[in-house]
């Protein structure tokens, strides 16, 4: 059998810059349990087994191979956003992205699972097949940030996933606490899935926030730093 032809989705200078500004991506111990919990929620409410990918399976190739858009795409990982250069030469969709399996190999100039670099830039995310996907959840730091184009608005991961077809994107506005983010996501999904996927996820998000605000048992859950970063963006017509 002939070996698959290695390829790199992102030009090397992008990854070199990311490595210079970000360094490496550290392990996130709670993302695996978070993904498993979200998967169990779907089984519980719809008797439809979710496809949960962790470790080497959580690769770029798994996303690019999507042929039937999922009802929900939940990504629990590292997010990043690079500041635009003062000379304005950056392409806005190359400044934001997500770290997937093998991302640290990609930063080192190597290829990881699926012969890809493991770094999904917004520029690449816009080409995913998500037309009809009800919700994309970006459970990662800084996924709501983007670069401003004076004529087109803000370009970043949210815009990219909307271009790819997602009807709504749940994202974060600042860095997250790994464990508390997983806990909040569990509360959000339980509320939304009970109401059904055709219900408005913004109602479930509001309910989860109110529960955290009123929780007298854990002061951290009352702290806006842990529940306020999550924002839901609906796709505008024409995108």
**Number of continuous helical runs:** 10
In the predicted model, the low-confidence regions spanning at least 5 consecutive residues are: 1-8
In helices, the fraction of residues equals 25-40%
**Which term fits the overall shape?**
globular
Strand content: 15-25%
Return the CATH architecture of the domain at 30-76 and 126-234. Answer: 3-Layer(aba) Sandwich
Task: Please give the radius of gyration in angstroms.
Answer: 18 Å
CATH-defined fold name of the domain at 30-76 and 126-234: Rossmann fold
- Straight-line distance between termini: 42 Å
The overall pLDDT average reads 88
Q: Would you state the CATH class of the domain at 30-76 and 126-234?
A: Alpha Beta
N-to-C SSE series? HHHEEEHEHEEEHEHHHHE
Main sheet record: 4 strands, mixed
Query: Structural class, judged by helices and strands?
Result: alpha/beta
List keywords for this structure.
alpha/beta; 3-stranded antiparallel β-sheet; 9 strands; about 240 residues; disordered N terminus; 4-stranded mixed β-sheet; single chain; Rossmann fold
Please give a structural write-up:
This protein is α/β, with parallel strands linked by helices and 239 residues long. The chain has a domain at 30-76 and 126-234: Rossmann fold, CATH 3.40.50. It is 37% helix and 16% strand. It has 10 helices and 9 strands. Strand 6 and strand 7 (153-156) form a beta hairpin. Helix 7 crosses helix 8 (201-213). The longest helix is centred in the C-terminal third of the chain and has 18 residues, at 178-195. The N and C termini lie far apart (42 Å).
